[in-house]
Design a protein that fits this description.
Largest sheet: 5 strands, antiparallel
Number of helices: 6
Shape: elongated
Radius of gyration: 30 Å
Order of helices and strands: HHHHEEEEEEHEEH
Strand order of the largest sheet: 4-3-2-1-5
CATH class of the largest domain: Alpha Beta
Structural class: alpha+beta
CATH architecture of the largest domain: 2-Layer Sandwich
């Protein structure tokens, strides 16, 4: 009965497009409450008083609460996350210098998956009260390339913009940013910033860098390298 009731709750909340994390939490609570209610009713039917059991459960709960304060703090933080929804499954977040795409949100912890497909488990108590960065499902990637001072910066910028606009892995919103970053010793630094799905950062960055380099070569844009001129003076002995 409890299992069917939980499944019904899940079905109804999914039909109304309720967040998956909240749906799983509510269905689990419904299932547990029904089981507890059935146990209490059955004990009463067979003539067993439930009052001592309630008192024992209360005492045990107090002792267990003192023993698992850290776990309860995680559960409390999990309830706060589910209620306030600072992020949902699929968002890309960064907290305590750890970033990744949210895979699951449980009462006790949140699981992220980064661009290397590594799962990162963060206890929920370390999320609540911390500075949280949420970029939804995308992450910002930055690249740069130097061109010679004799080359046309506007042409180089247009080439980079073309690569970013044509690449399927680059998000079109927010828009890409391309421009002159700095004036280096050997050339002008062209910087480009763009957004990609968090789980595809590395492969997209490598592909974009390769296409940018290829575009520069095709248009004969010179890519400089550090050079040093050494002058040797000789004093002729008289």
């Amino acid at each position: 009965v409890a299992k069917k009731a939980a499944a019904l709750v899940t079905k109804l909340m999914t039909r109304h497009k309720v967040d998956i994390t909240l749906t799983n939490f509510v269905s689990s609570v419904v299932k547990v409450l029904i089981i507890i209610a059935v146990v209490i009713i059955c004990l009463g039917k067979i003539g067993i008083s439930v009052t001592p059991f309630v008192a024992a459960i209360g005492a045990a709960s107090l002792g267990a609460g003192l023993a698992v304060q850290g776990m309860l703090a995680n559960y409390g933080a999990g309830l706060a996350i589910i209620a306030t929804r600072p992020y949902v499954v699929g968002d890309t977040i960064m907290v305590k210098d750890v970033s990744g795409q949210v895979k699951t949100i449980d009462l006790g912890h949140t699981i992220l998956i980064n661009e290397e497909n590594v799962e990162i488990t963060i206890p929920n108590k370390h999320v609540i009260g911390e500075i949280l960065h949420n970029s939804n499902e995308y992450s910002l990637v930055q690249g740069e390339i130097d061109i010679a001072y004799s080359s046309c910066a506007d042409t180089a910028i247009s080439l980079v913009e073309g690569v970013l606009n044509e690449h399927d892995g680059v998000a079109q919103s927010p828009q890409c940013k391309v421009g002159i970053e700095a004036f280096a010793a050997s050339g002008v630094t062209i910087s480009y910033r763009y957004w990609v799905p968090t789980t595809k950062i590395i492969e997209t960055k490598l592909a974009v860098n390769g296409l940018v380099y290829k575009a520069m070569n095709q248009q004969n844009i010179e890519i400089p390298f550090p050079q040093r001129v050494v002058t040797i003076q000789q004093n002729n002995a008289s």
